[in-house]
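I hope you will forgive my troubling you with a question about protein structure. Here, with my thanks, is the record as I have it:
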Amino acid sequence: MADIVHQFPIKASAVQVFHAVSTPAGLDAWWTLRAAGVPETGATYELWFGSEYDWRAVVTCCVPGKEFELELTAAQTDWLGTRVGLTLTETNGVTTVRFHHSGWPAPNEHFYISSYCWATYLRLLKRYVERGEVVAYQERDEA
């Protein structure tokens, strides 16, 4: 098994960051083209990235303002059963984000590409929460 991990600060409250990573509107601003779901343990999320990427996930952990995690139940083969999540710690108005995408079957080419993509998307999350900046979905890979 292999895991992708990132840690970085966001100059905003943990509540603001939690909203951006756990609500459909927040996810659509930096990651998905269209998301649906409610942030509560056991809920199913629809994560749509285009016609070939209509994925599903189940919320495995939801502690408002502190933790959020999804387990992928319908996705590309390498992503099936993996968990995407964040732990948030706020100090003096700055939130430290500890991100993980855990449970990869192997550190293969897709794993390395996804690690880079996560770094890119997490940067967009930071820009969205700190500045309110939303990059159009079609432009996110180049932003």
In short: The chain has a mean pLDDT of 97. Residues 48 and 54 are 5 Å apart (CA to CA).
